[in-house]
Amino acid sequence: MKIMVAVKRVIDYAVKIRVKADKSGVETQNVKMSMNPFCEIALEEALRIKEAGLASEVVAVTMGPKQSIDTLRTGLAMGADRGIHVEATGDLFPLAVAKLFKALVEIEKPGLIILGKQAIDNDCNQTGQMVAGLLGWPQGTFASKVVLDKEKQEVMVDREVDGGLETLCLNLPAVITTDLRLNQPRYATLPNIMKAKSKPVKKYTPEELNVATNSDLEVVEVTEPPKRKAGVLVSSVDELIDKLKNEAHVI
């Protein structure tokens, strides 16, 4: 069985985000970029499934500008067997990404697709669900545990919900999106980083996949969140209670 995993290039989680002067987006020039943390978890889970002898190949897929190849190489250094890069300029919204994934699935014929539940740059949390919808495949979102049964062609997915844990049994092929508590991603070792340079990477364009990436969505303006007001010191419990009663905002 082949597993396809999405890996997205995003601004590193430790970088302070700066909004562009014209408020058209956030500054990405000369900013450290890295793999989306949820995508790292998705890739780690795919690699563990393969190491358990339940999959034959892990294919990492990234979409975006030519610089996205760096993120793909990171995925190959972690252990993915080969990569696919759909090179596209401009912003790719979730529906366009899902359509591109559907086109790749028709070419690659994977038995399982694993994606991070969301990307930290836009927090959309939509792509995995849209991919499953377009393919007509069962889906398990926010997975905190994944158990694959190769003989039955099923996968058990534990997902965290408001009331506790929910367990889903999905027939393969299926789509899974990963939550933070699923696993702890591995670090790429130096030998694997060197090996990654020789691993195959297939390149496509949206035009070659016959997918239109234009969107009906338009970003009107991007602004920073309002600054929080400074806190105040109180001299007694009574004063604190009075402020909580009379000054605290009710959400």
UniProtKB/TrEMBL annotation:
<dbReference type="InterPro" id="IPR014730">
    <property type="entry name" value="ETF_a/b_N"/>
</dbReference>
<feature type="domain" description="Electron transfer flavoprotein alpha/beta-subunit N-terminal">
    <location>
        <begin position="23"/>
        <end position="213"/>
    </location>
</feature>
<dbReference type="GO" id="GO:0009055">
    <property type="term" value="F:electron transfer activity"/>
</dbReference>
<protein>
    <recommendedName>
        <fullName>Electron transfer flavoprotein subunit beta</fullName>
    </recommendedName>
</protein>
<keyword id="KW-0813">Transport</keyword>
<dbReference type="GO" id="GO:0009063">
    <property type="term" value="P:amino acid catabolic process"/>
</dbReference>
<dbReference type="InterPro" id="IPR000049">
    <property type="entry name" value="ET-Flavoprotein_bsu_CS"/>
</dbReference>
<dbReference type="GO" id="GO:0033539">
    <property type="term" value="P:fatty acid beta-oxidation using acyl-CoA dehydrogenase"/>
</dbReference>
<dbReference type="InterPro" id="IPR012255">
    <property type="entry name" value="ETF_b"/>
</dbReference>
<comment type="function">
    <text>The electron transfer flavoprotein serves as a specific electron acceptor for several dehydrogenases, including five acyl-CoA dehydrogenases, glutaryl-CoA and sarcosine dehydrogenase. It transfers the electrons to the main mitochondrial respiratory chain via ETF-ubiquinone oxidoreductase (ETF dehydrogenase).</text>
</comment>
<dbReference type="InterPro" id="IPR033948">
    <property type="entry name" value="ETF_beta_N"/>
</dbReference>
<dbReference type="GO" id="GO:0005759">
    <property type="term" value="C:mitochondrial matrix"/>
</dbReference>
<dbReference type="InterPro" id="IPR014729">
    <property type="entry name" value="Rossmann-like_a/b/a_fold"/>
</dbReference>
<dbReference type="Pfam" id="PF01012">
    <property type="entry name" value="ETF"/>
</dbReference>
<comment type="subunit">
    <text>Heterodimer of an alpha and a beta subunit.</text>
</comment>
<comment type="similarity">
    <text>Belongs to the ETF beta-subunit/FixA family.</text>
</comment>
<keyword id="KW-0249">Electron transport</keyword>
<keyword id="KW-0496">Mitochondrion</keyword>
